[in-house]
Amino acid sequence: MAALFNLLSDSTCDFSLEDSTRMGVTILPFTYTEAGKADGGFHGTDDQFQSRSAHEFYQAIRDGAAPMTSQPSQLVFEDAFRAALETGLPSVLFCITSGLSGGYNGACTALDRLKEELGKDDLPIYIVDCTVTSTAQYLLVEQAARMRDNGATAKEVYEWALEARYHVQTLFMVDSLDTLQRGGRIPKGVAAVASALDAKPMLSFNLDGTLKIVGVSRGRNKGIKRLVKFYEENHDSGQYGPVVAIGNADCPEDLERYAEMLRKADPSVRIMTSNIGPTIGCHVGPGMMSCVFWGADRRTGKAKGARKA
């Protein structure tokens, strides 16, 4: 069945090049740079680890690089929208949560400018504020691709996404809060306390798309077990089946052990894995691991949190 619309996402969905090619998703890249360096420092485009491997990227951060990210420019969004319009098909763009980035607002501004330029108030382009990002955005976009391939229209997928984003359950573990604090995503005092306790912070998303700390784990092993337990306690296999998306920031051995634990906990589970891309990696640093799946409506507050482990 021919697709009824174009599917786009910014690069914070953490798709590999193989993922985006296989699923027919156009990726709009963020960029990153290390400011204040005479030689330009550590910089690049979030090109799905084509110009440097995940290990090379995260090793540079381990060695002291402190890159910051920039959202796609107005020109990138406008060019993508023009190309989409030329296909004659409607389009849906999934954007990183507006609680952490201006990417969604930038996309909306670019669309408004294009409407004004073309003299049309109703261009067939729908923009989704995911209110989540990274592996959670991966889960949303992957399901959107499945719906498109099964004949759903752009408007149907857009309206689905506005509700589905609240059924995405997310828990992720970071080695430290230093990079999140440096980027202004976590207060400095909170990061200092976590560092002093030698704790592995467990985080999730508020309904407005900002980050929240929901627990701590003393050590990575206990943290991985907590991720598995979070899936066991909160997943809902009703509509989409037992599926979980897991991500890692250059810790593939931990990822393999984590995936095996999930399979033992639920032999029927379908596991999707991803490398945490450069955009998110600039903020979470190496060692981050995530657990994302479909569950109860987060607006009800019924999901069980990540208890101290």
Commentary on this structure:
The structure is a single chain. This protein is of the alpha/beta class and 309 residues long. It has 2 domains: 6-34 and 70-166, 3-Layer(aba) Sandwich (Rossmann fold); 167-300, 2-Layer Sandwich (Hypothetical Protein Tm841, Chain: A,domain 3), CATH 3.30.1180. Helix content is 39%, strand content 21%. The chain has helices at residues 17-23, 54-62, 74-86, 103-118, 135-149, 154-164, 178-182, 188-196, 220-234, 252-265, 278-284; strands spanning 6-10, 25-28, 31-33, 43-45, 68-70, 91-95, 125-129, 168-173, 200-205, 211-217, 243-248, 270-275, 289-294. It has a 6-stranded mixed β-sheet with strand order 10-9-8-13-11-12, with helices on both faces. A 4-stranded parallel β-sheet has the order 2-1-6-7, with helices on both faces. It is globular.
Return the CATH topology of the largest domain.
Hypothetical Protein Tm841, Chain: A,domain 3
The number of distinct β-strands equals 13
Largest sheet, if any?
Answer: 6 strands, mixed
User: How large, in whole angstroms, is the Cα Rg?
Assistant: 19 Å
* Global geometry: globular
Percentage of residues in strands = 15-25%
Q: What is the N-to-C succession of helices and strands?
A: EHEEEHEHEHEHHEHHEEHEHEHE
Class computed from helices, strands and strand pairing: alpha/beta
Layout: helices, strands, pairs:
Blueprint: E1 6-10, H1 17-23, E2 25-28, E3 31-33, E4 43-45, H2 54-62, E5 68-70, H3 74-86, E6 91-95, H4 103-118, E7 125-129, H5 135-149, H6 154-164, E8 168-173, H7 178-182, H8 188-196, E9 200-205, E10 211-217, H9 220-234, E11 243-248, H10 252-265, E12 270-275, H11 278-284, E13 289-294
Parallel strand pairs: 1-2, 1-6, 6-7, 11-12
Antiparallel strand pairs: 3-4, 3-5, 8-9, 8-13, 9-10, 11-13
